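This protein record is not my work; I was only asked to verify it. Take the sequence as given and treat only the tokens as open to question. I have pasted the whole thing underneath without changing anything:
***
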Amino acid sequence: MEDMEAIRSDGRGRLVTVRGRRRVGKSWLVEEFIERSKASHVFFAASRQTSERELARFADRIARSSLPSASAAVGVAFDGWEAALVLAATAAEQAHPSIVVIDEYPYLLEGGRDAVEGAVQSAWDRILSRTPVLLILVGSDLAMMRSLDEYGRPLHGRPSRGIVVDPLSPTEVGQLLKLPAADALDAYLVVGGFPEIARLWQPGQELKAFLTRGLADESSPLVATGRRILESEFPSETQARSILSVIGAGTRTYTAISNETGIASTNLNEPLKTLVERKRIVEARLPLAATSSKDRRYEITDPYLRFYLRFIDPNIIDIERGRSRLVRPLIWRDWSTYRGRAIEP
């Protein structure tokens, strides 16, 4: 709300970036903020379509929004993002600032990052920065969102605030689910820090009861969230997806990953780099006694995704066929070993 008060005070625009892991609740938080602010707004979610299609979808969202410029967007065909953002900001009033949200902003950049960022910069410098508008850019690609404000990038120095939405911590999961410390840790190793999954866990419920219920429905967040994350993060990167699968199954060294995936060791470095540095889904640890970088041990960083890749993904066919009763014994059998390794990898 501070940004909205600042806009009402000086009539100048504010640009805010929001980043965080996929499914941690970024969009929900922004929508909750909009609801509480009672401001006119447009909420647009990019969807990896062509630039022309995304601009058409944005025009349609404006036309159906509560923005003062809604009627001006009817039937409009934008030729670029500069014109689109300028129209969205049209007629905003200092006493009643408008909010423009672009969710999954990195998707727009996939078709030509410099062109889109340059258009946003031009719209911001020319019009939006001097207009009572709050522009919110939301994204799950942590590396890309972090780089928006780097020196040399078009939007460097423009954001007034960068918000990071972190997953729930083990303590927060325990408090939410009203569980004692040991049980809270077990819950965290399954749901990670994802509020959507944690909300399925009834307060005080035991692990076995939660898994029995969650695995019985293939559309439940416990099952569906992992699939959505992988489909969104790796729509066409089959090598990275294969690497994730074998690491999730317990393969940890460079050589073993190469052997399990069938990817030549000379070709393995680049997809591993994507997982570790860009996606930040995998962590590379070098043991104290190691002498070579190839002695690194690779682990899935997120507890939920680690659980999904270890127990759900390999058995998804049984879950989809309503045979989760065949999957649960596999989890119970390996849980003690899995838990110990997850806590002290």
User: Anything to note?
Assistant: Strands lie at 14-20, 41-45, 98-103, 133-139, 161-165, 282-285, 297-300. The first strand starts at residue 14 and ends at 20. The chain has two domains: 2-165, 170-343. The mean pLDDT is 91.
